[in-house]
User: Which sequence fits this backbone?
């Protein structure tokens, strides 16, 4: 069995009928429960639940403080390359886009690492465009070898890999995986992934589980909000995280809530995800998955990110750049998308202190 079987169970479900039939008494009963089932979670994504955001926030805050305390992990992305072989309608790295392509040399990786490490960060997320040709696993391993001199935790956000390849990278020093399904709707997925190996829906969907099987320490999943009806993608994201959490209790499972951002290209999202929608999704996920980490990245505005502290978020990116070489290299490649929160690591640290929270620069060290 894989998560695809869970997806098929709900593929023909009448989401509109269910969401429009949710009642006040139903929401109040759900808010009194200790443990929610899948349909409870879906009900919290309904328009009716929007009238209960305040009690949802109070309970989400209680669960977050109980399970995570007043600690927020900080990390930053490091783009190694923007070469890509896929033609994805919504992505600045689309192989058809005429952007400045670049791949860091190992010397440039070291310069970037030194610049990031000087901010005090010990957790890093390395990213590439999806091209095995330009950034094979051997190249990623070589980069990890350099980065281990500076960081105690190295996560990857690259093309999906086989179980043996994940194991190979874990052996090299990788301990975390981030991989977005983009959208869980298989038909919409095929529409927005026009050409390239990324069109293989099942291979991508099962990749987080392959990482768990390979003994990855932490796995972070999500949907790119705006590609499809957010109620459905948020629901399947929560179910996917729950599936992984139940089946692989030794793996730290977390969820990201990225919204589409302006990028090179003319793709316009069909579905709007408002700030209020995003807050509702985060609160519903916290109530459904009290122990799951939740990441809100620099895709979001400073004021919004600040207001979410304590309500569910457990990880923040800081000092971000989506450009290849964006931290220390003069000859930069074009970025994947525009970020909304351009504050430095120091500014994010001070913001957390002002709210009575502890910024965590390091919480993992492989021995």
Assistant:
């Amino acid at each position: 069995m894989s998560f695809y079987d869970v997806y098929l169970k709900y593929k023909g479900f009448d989401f509109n009928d269910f969401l429009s039939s949710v009642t006040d008494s139903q929401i109040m009963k759900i808010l009194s429960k200790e443990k929610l089932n899948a349909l409870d979670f879906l009900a919290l994504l309904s328009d009716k639940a929007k009238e209960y955001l305040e009690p949802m926030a109070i309970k989400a805050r209680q669960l977050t403080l109980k399970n995570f305390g007043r600690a927020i992990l900080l990390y930053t992305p490091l783009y190694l390359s923007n070469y890509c072989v896929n033609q994805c309608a919504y992505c600045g790295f689309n192989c058809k886009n005429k952007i400045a392509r670049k791949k860091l040399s190992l010397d440039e990786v070291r310069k970037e690492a030194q610049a990031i490490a000087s901010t005090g960060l010990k957790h890093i997320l390395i990213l590439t465009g999806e091209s095995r040709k330009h950034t094979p696993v051997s190249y990623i391993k070589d980069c990890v070898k350099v980065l281990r001199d500076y960081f105690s935790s190295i996560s990857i956000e690259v093309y999906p890999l086989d179980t043996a390849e994940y194991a190979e990278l874990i052996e090299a020093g990788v301990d975390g995986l981030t991989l977005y399904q983009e959208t869980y709707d298989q038909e919409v997925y095929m529409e927005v992934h026009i050409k390239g190996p990324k069109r293989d829906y099942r291979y991508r969907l099962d990749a987080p589980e392959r990482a768990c099987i390979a003994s990855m320490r932490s796995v972070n999943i999500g949907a790119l909000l705006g590609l499809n009806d957010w109620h459905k993608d948020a629901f399947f994201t929560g179910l996917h995280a729950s599936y992984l959490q139940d089946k692989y209790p030794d793996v730290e499972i977390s969820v990201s809530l990225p919204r589409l951002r302006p990028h090179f290209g003319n793709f316009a999202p069909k579905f709007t995800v408002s700030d209020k929608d995003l807050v509702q999704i985060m609160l519903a996920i916290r109530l459904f998955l009290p122990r799951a980490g939740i990441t809100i990245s620099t895709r979001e505005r400073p004021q919004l990110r600040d207001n979410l502290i304590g309500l569910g978020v457990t990880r923040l990116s800081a000092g971000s750049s989506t450009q290849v070489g964006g931290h220390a290299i003069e000859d930069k490649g074009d970025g994947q998308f525009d970020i909304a929160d351009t504050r430095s690591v120091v500014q994010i640290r001070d913001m957390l202190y002002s709210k009575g929270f502890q910024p965590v620069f390091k919480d993992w060290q492989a021995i």
Observations:
- The longest strand covers residues 71-79.
